[in-house]
Amino acid sequence: MAKTHRDRIIEAASALLTEGGRDAVSTRAVSAAAGVQAPAIYRVFGDKQGLLDAVAGHGFQTYLRSKKDNPVTDDPVADLRRGWDLHVGFGLAHPALYSLIYGDPRPGESPAARQASEILSGMIHRIAEAGRLAMTEERAALLVHAAGRGITLTLISMPEEQRDPALSATARDAVIATITTGPPPGATPDGGPVAAAVALRAVLPRTTALNAPERALLADWLDRIATSG
Questions:
Q1: Tens digit of pLDDT for each residue in 52-105?
Q2: What whole-number distance in Å separates Cα of residue 90 and Cα of residue 32?
Q3: Bridge-partner residues for 133, per DSSP?
Q4: Which fold has domain 56-228?
Q5: What is the pTM of this model?
């Protein structure tokens, strides 16, 4: 199948990003590398930020394909631990791309970062369903995201020979210990009222024993219990 203008432009921009970082992805350089006129870039992507978002999305698909090596198991906490390692490993293997996705201080998230957040939220939700989450899903997801992003960007900023290989694992275990509670799957959870409320809140949409107003009221009560800790 012949490559489209869009394909050639994204591939050229991705190569420039890998070789020289974000500053190397200029309209002139991309148009020359892709063999297209500069106006074609604006017609396809709107502006340079649109191009960068497309490059980030293209590169993120590589990350998603690598996640096939992180299958879902019966232990959602162990899955989150492996997911952290995969995330950090991807960032160190693709520092320019990772910095493009996560290093931009502009408000909001890039489409690629939003997709990653949705995957993380799903992992956190499974921990909540298992009765092993010690705080609300939203807070846990934000904490894992902030810590993982910070550790990865910190390691990227360091010379490779100076990186502490234990830094990521230490942060990972500390964060997971903070957001989780209770024994491994198969045992009776003992995380107190917060973990119980979070677990019930996670599965509340499935219940048919309550009508909509009753579910809304119970959800409010559970949220108050979950945030009280």
A1: 888 988 888 877 776 666 678 999 999 999 999 999 999 999 999 998 888 876
A2: 29
A3: 180
A4: Tetracycline Repressor; domain 2 (1.10.357)
A5: 0.74
